[in-house]
Amino acid sequence: MKPIIIRWSTFVIEKRWPVIIICIIITLVALFGFKRLCFYNKFSSWLSPDDPDLALFLNISEKFSINDLVVVMVKPDGELFSPDMLKTIRQFTETLQEHEEIFYVSSIANIADIKKIPGGIQVDDLLSEIPPTPREMSRFKSRVLPDESFVGNIVSADGKWAAISVFINSQSDSEKVVKNLLEPAAAKIFSGKARVYYSGMPSDAHFITDFAMKDLMTLTPIIFVIICFTLFISFRSLKGILYPALVVALATVWLFGLIGFLNQPMSFVTSVIPVLLTALGSAYGIHVLNKYYHDLSDAPTAEKSSLIRSTSMIIAPVLLAGLTTFIGFLSFQSVKLKLIAEFGLYSSVGILFSLLIALTLVPALSSFGSFSRKKYRPLNLTPLLTRLAALVIRRKTVIVGVSFIILTAFAFGIPLIKKEMNFSEYFPDHSLPRISQQHLSAHFEGAYPVIIDFKAKDCKSPGILRVMRRSENFLMSQKALSLPVSIVSVIEELNFKLNDRYSLPDSSAGINNIWFFMDGRREIKQIVTENNQESLVFSKSARSATAFNRQLTVRINRFIAENYSRPLYVYKLDHIPNQLRKEIQGHEVRYLRDEIQWISRRYSENKIDEQVLDPILKKTLTLSAGPESPELKKIQFQEISDYIGSEQFDFFIDPKTRRNLTKAIGQTMSVNPLSLSEIQEILKKWIPSSKYDPEIARDSSETILYKTRECRQKWITHQIWSELNRVFASEDMGFEKKIKSVLYDLLDNTAVLPLQTIGLIRGQPLSLKSISQTGIPSMLTRLDHYLNSSQIQSILLAYGLTLIIMTILRRSIIVGLMSTIPIIFTISIIYGFLGYSGIPLDYATMMIGSVSIGVGIDYAIHFSQGVTDHLEQGFALEESIQYAFREKGNAILTNAVAVITGFAVLLFSSMMIMRNFGGTMVGSMLLASLSTLTVFPASLLIWHPKLKSKK
Amino acid sequence: MNKKYFIVLIMLMFTSGIRHWAADPSAILKKVEANYSGQNSPRNMEAMMIMKIQHGDNLKVRKLKTWTKNNDNGYDSRVLKFVSPSDVKDIGLLILSEDLMYLYLPEFHRIRRIASSNRKDSFHGSDLSYEDLGFSDFSRDYVPKFLSEDETRWVLELNEKSDRQKAYTKIILTVDKTSLMPLSMDLYNRSGELWKHAEYSSVKLSSYTVINALKMVDKKRNSTTFLEFKDIKLDQNLDSVIFTQRFLKRRIG
Questions:
Q1: What element of type H or E holds A549?
Q2: pLDDT in tens, A501-542
Q3: Is B68:B81 a contact under the CB 8 Å cutoff?
Q4: Taking the CA atoms of chain A, what radius of gyration do you get in angstroms?
Q5: Does B112 touch chain A (CB under 8 A)?
Q6: Which residues pair with A541 in a beta bridge?
Q7: ipTM, 2 dp
Q8: Beta B92-97 vs B100-105: how paired, if at all?
Q9: Which of the listed residues A295, A659, A704, A814 has the most CB atoms within 10 Å of its CB?
Q10: Using CB atoms, which residue from B60, B87, B191 is nearest to A509?
Q11: Best of B110, B124, B188 to disrupt the A interface by mutation (most A CBs within 10 Å)?
C-alpha cells in the first residue's frame, strides 16, 4: 500500500501542471452537462418497474388516463354563479380540452347533465348556455348545489368555489403539463378574476421540483459562504479558504455535469447533495491542508520532498474517512426505492470526486508557494478536552450507565415513528400546495384516485355489474372518499332518468339499451375499455397523509379478499321452482344487507343492525310473492291507461275504443294478475279487425305486462324504503336511490352469490378474471413498504460494512464492535427522538441512519487511532485516552462543528422534509462526536479491550 | 355604340361574370348545399348504413336501416333503426329537428324524447358527432373564403361566424367542380388544431348525385369511422307514418 501512496503523492506533485490542466478541462466539460440537468418527481419512477403493484398502476394509467389528476380549485373574487365567471371557467375548460396532452377535463362547464324532461331526457353539458338573467342564474345555482354528483366534485357546498378536474394523458409528462400548460392557462384566463389552487400528484410533483430548484439555488451559495467563513477562521489564509472550497466546488460541478451527461433526471432529494458534499467533502481538503500547515510551516518554500512525505502520510486517514462515508451512501444501493438509491449513488460518487480532488489538485496547487503558520491559529479546545478526559476517567461507570438509560428510554420511542410518503405533506405551512391541500379538504372530495380494477369477459354483463356495485357501495362506506363512480352508477342513473328506477337491468340487452346514450362519451373511456373487458370503480381521496392512505388500502384489500377470494355464481331465477327460488333469495338477502349497511354509513348517522334489517329485507320477498294490493292495482291501471292513450300505443284507434280497451283490461286486472294471453285476447276483441295485427298485438301485450311488473317492483321498493327510512330518517335523494338499487336487485331475476349449488340448482360461474386495487393510496402504501425495508437494509448494510472495516483496522472484533458504540448510541437516540417528536420517517429522514454511520464512525476511527498510537508507545490505557483527547479531540470537535454547520444550513430549506433531515443530522453529528468523547472512552476504560493497529 | 366595341364589352362582362361566380365562395357553398341536402337533392331516401368504427385493434361494426325525408324547412327528418349487432338490435332513433330526437328502447318498451343542444357529442361511439351526421347549413354558421382551385376542384375555407358556437371553428372544404359535392373536409377545433379529416365519395343515381361513403378520421382520438350506404332507394314516396313514434317501435328484419 505504502509504495502506491508514495508513487501517487510523487506523481501529483511532480506532474502538477498536467494535474491542474486535467482538472480544469474536466470542470469545463462538466459545465456543459449542466444544460441537460432536469428534475423528474413522478413517484411511479421511484419504484422498480418489475413491482407488480406499479405495473398495474401504470397499466391502468395507460388504458384509462385516470391517475394523473390535477384538481384546479378556483375561488372567484366575486360570485361564482355569475355570467362572467362561468364563461371564464368554460373558456378554461375548452382551452385545456383541446390540447392532446389533456385526456379529459371536467368542470361546471362540461360535466354531463342528464335531466328528465316531459316524455324523455335531456343530455347536455351542465352549462350548455350561460343563464342570461339573475333569476335564471339563481335557478341554475339552486339546481346545481343540492346535487351530490356536483357538490364536492365541481362546486363546493357553499357555492363559492369551483373545481376543474384535469386528467392528463398518460403518455404526457404530467409535471411539464402542469408547468407549461395548466399554470400559464390558469394565470392568463383567471387573472384578476379569481385565485387558483392546484391539488393532485402531478401538481405536487411540479411544486416539489420548484422547491427543490429554489433550495438548490439558495442553499448551495449559503453553505459555500459558511464553509469559506469556517475555513477563514481555521486557516486565516487565502490558500486555506481556496483549496478546500475548490474541492467541494469542483466535486459538485463534476458530479452534476456527469448526471447531466448521463441524462439522468434528478429528484427533489438530489437538491440536497451540494449541501451534503460541501459539508462532508470540505473535510478532506481541510485534513490535507492541516497536515501541510502542521508539517511545513514557516519554510520559505515548500520543498517537494517534504510535500510528498506529508501527502503520503495524510492519504491513508483521508481515504479511510472518505471510504466510510462512501460506504454509508453506497449502502443505499441495496434499497428498492430508486430515488434513494440514486441519491446514494450520486452522493457516493460526489464523495469519491471530493477525495480525488483533495488528493490530487490540492497537493498539486500546494506545491506552489509556502505555508505560513503565523496566521494559522486553529480553535484551541485543549483545556476543555483535558477536563473532559479527567471527568470520563473518573466517572466512567456513571457515564456508561446514564448513557445506557438514555439509550433505552429513546429506544422505546422507535416503534412510535410515523411514516410519510406523500410529498404534498412536505411543503411549508403557508406554501401554495399546502394551502391548496387545505382548501381541497375543506371544500372538495379529493384529488388522489382510489381505484378498484375489474377484469372480466364482459364487464357490462348483469352479474359483473352487480359485483362492481358491491365494491362501489363498499367504497361509499369509507371516510374521506368521494362518491364512487363506475359504469354501474352511470347505468343506474340513466335508468333512473329513462325509466324512473335507479337500478341495474337484469339482462345484457337492457344494459346495452341504456348504454346507447353513453357510448362514445369521453368520460366513459376513463371507467371502461372499448372491449368492455376491463372496468374501474373510481373514487378520490381527500387526504394525502400516508397513515390514512395505508389504512384505507388495507381495508380495501381486506374487502377484496373477503368478498372475491371465493368464486361467484350467477343464478337466473326465471325458471327456478318457487321453493328453491326462495332459498336463493334468502341467501341473497344476507349477501345484500352488507351493501345497505355500507351505503347508510355515508348518508345517515343512524345505524341499522342485522336483526332489524333482515326481516325488513325479507318482507321485500313476501310482498313480491304475495297478491297485489288495491293501491298497487290502481297505480298499475293508471300506467296502462296512460300508455294506451299515448302516441306510443301501437294501434291507431279512436278515443272511444281506447277507453273501452282500457276498461276491459282494468276489469280483468281487478280479478287476477294479467297474463300475456289475456291481454292479447282483450286486444283482439277491442281493436277493429281492419287495424288488428297479431304481431303488433303481441308487442303491445308485452309492453302492458312489462309496465304492470315494473309498477309492482317500484311500489314494493318504495314500501321497503319507507320502512327502512324510519330508522335512517334521511331526506337525501341519493341515499334513497342507492338503497332502492339494492332492493330492486332482490326483486329481479338475477342473483350473484358465492355459492356454487343451492338445492339442485347450479349457478353459472361468473366470468370474473380479477379484482385488484390501485391508485394513489395503494402506491403510497407500496412506497411505505419499501421505505421500511429500505431503511432496515441500508442501516444493516452500512453498519455491517463499517464493522468489518473497524475490525480489520483494529484487528479485533471486540474493538470493532466497541468502536461502533457511538453510532449505535447516536442512531438509537435519533430514531427514538423521531418517534417521540412526531417527525415522520420519509425519503430524507430515512437516510439519517446510514449517513450517521458513514460520517459518525470517522470520529471513533480518529479517537481509537489516537489511543492505539499511545498504547503502542507504551502508555497505559488511561494515559493513552488522555493523549487521544488532547491530540484528536480538537480535530473531532472542529470537524463536527463544520459538518453540523453544513447540515444546519438545511434548516433554511423551503421543504419541511429537508428541514427535518438537516435538524436531525445536526443532532446526530453532535451526538456522534460527543459520544465518541464520552461513552466510547468510558466503555474502553471499563472493558479494557486489546487495542492494536493495522500496520 | 360601335358594334365591335359592343361585342368586346359583352364578352368582357360574360367572362368577368364567370370568373366572379367561380371565385365567389358563397355561391359555391350554396350550390353544394343545394346538391347535398337542398332543393337539388332527393326528396327522400331509404338505405342500409354500415358503420365501422376502428380504434386501434378494436373494430366495431354497426348495421342500421335509415329513412330520410328532405323537408322544405331545411331540416331532414330521419329514422335510424339498428339491425345488428344483437345487443343494440331494434333500438330506433327518430330525428325530427336539430335538437329533437326520439329513442326507442326495446328492452324497456319505451320511447323517450331526447333533447340535446350539444351536437358535438359522438354518435354511438363513432368519430361522427350528431352535427356531422347531417351536412348542416354551413352558410348559416360559417363565412366562406375562396382558397384555391384547380381543374377539378375548388377549395374553400369556412370560418365560424362570431355569434355561433359550433364544434369546428374552421373547415377547409374541397368541392368537386363536376358534381358540386364535397370531396373532403378538414375540421379544426377551437385551438386552431386539425381535429378531424373527412373524405366523401358520391355516386350518380338517376338524376341525383348522392354520398354513398364517408371516412372520418379523428386525429386526436386516433380512430376512424367508415360509413357506407347500400341498397339506396331514392324518391320512393315514403309514407309519412315512417317518421312517427309508432313506426319507431316496429321490428326490422
A1: helix A546-564
A2: 999 998 888 999 988 877 777 778 889 998 899 999 999 998
A3: no
A4: 38
A5: yes
A6: A448, A481
A7: 0.79
A8: antiparallel
A9: A704
A10: B87
A11: B110
The three cell numbers of residue A312 are 503520503
Backbone angles phi, psi at A412, to 5 degrees: -65, -20
Q: How far apart are CA A615 and CA A617, in angstroms?
A: 5
How does DSSP classify residue A178?
Answer: I
Bridge partners of A284, per DSSP, are none
Residues 39-68 of A with CB under 8 A from B: none
Chain A residue with Cα closest to B108: A510
Of B224, B174, B167, residue with least CA distance to B202? B174
Contacting residues of B for A100, CB less than 8 Å apart:
220
Q: Is A514 on the interface with B (CB under 8 A)?
A: yes
> Whole-angstrom Cα distance, residue A484 to residue A450?
9
Interface test with B, best of A103, A127, A169, A517 (most B CBs within 10 A): A517
Task: Give, in order, the Cα–Cα distances in Å from B250 to each of A512, B180, B219, B236.
Answer: 19, 37, 38, 19
A145 Cα to chain B: minimum distance (Å): 22
Least Cα distance to B149 among B53, B15, B22, B252 occurs for: B22
Question: What is the chain B residue with the closest CA to A703?
Answer: B109
| 8 Å CB contact between A926 and A854 | no
Distance of CA A771 to CAs A467, A817, A882, Å? 10, 50, 68
Distances (CA, A) of A500 to A119, A497, A507, A713, B68: 11, 6, 17, 11, 32
A182: which DSSP letter?
I
- Segment B128-145 shows an average pLDDT of 78
Q: Are A119 and B113 inside 8 Å of each other by CB?
A: yes
Q: Is A508 on the interface with B (CB under 8 A)?
A: yes
- The mean pLDDT of A470-490, rounded to a whole number, is 94
- State how far Cα A919 lies from the chain centre: 25
Query: Under 8 Å CB-to-CB from B113, ≥6 apart: which residues?
Result: A117, A118, A119, A120, A121, B100, B101, B102, B103
Candidates B52, B59, B121, partner chain A, best to mutate (most A CBs within 10 A): B121
Residues A437 and A435: their CA atoms lie apart, in Å, by: 5
Q: At CA B142, angle to CA B32 and CA B46, rounded to 5?
A: 40
Closest CA to A932 of A866, A873, A839: A866
Mutation site for B-interface testing, chosen from A113, A122, A522 by largest number of B Cβ within 10 Å: A122
Q: How far apart are CA A489 and CA A485, in angstroms?
A: 6
Flag if A648 and B115 touch (Cβ within 8 Å). Answer: no
Which of A120, A647, A650 is the closest to B112 by Cβ? A120
Distance from CA of B118 to the nearest CA of A (A): 6
- Top mean pLDDT of A107-116, A293-302, A349-358 is at A349-358
> How far is the C-alpha of A317 from the C-alpha of A165, rounded, in Å?
58
Label residue A154 exposed, middle or buried (CB < 10 Å: 0-12, 13-18, 19+): buried
**What pLDDT does residue A638 have?**
93
Contact at 8 Å (CB) between B132 and A539? no
- Cβ of residue B106 closer than 8 Å to a chain A Cβ: yes
Cβ within 8 Å, pair B124-A516: yes
pLDDT in tens, A882-925: 988 887 887 788 778 888 888 999 999 988 888 999 999 999 99
The CA distances from residue B135 to A355, B146, B151, B189, in Å, are: 75, 19, 25, 18
Q: Report the chain A residue with the minimal C-alpha distance to residue B112.
A: A120
Residue located via cell numbers 338524376? B207
Which residue of chain B has the CA closest to A98? B191
Burial A786-808 (b: 16+ CB within 10 A, else e): bbeebbebbbebbbebbbebbbe
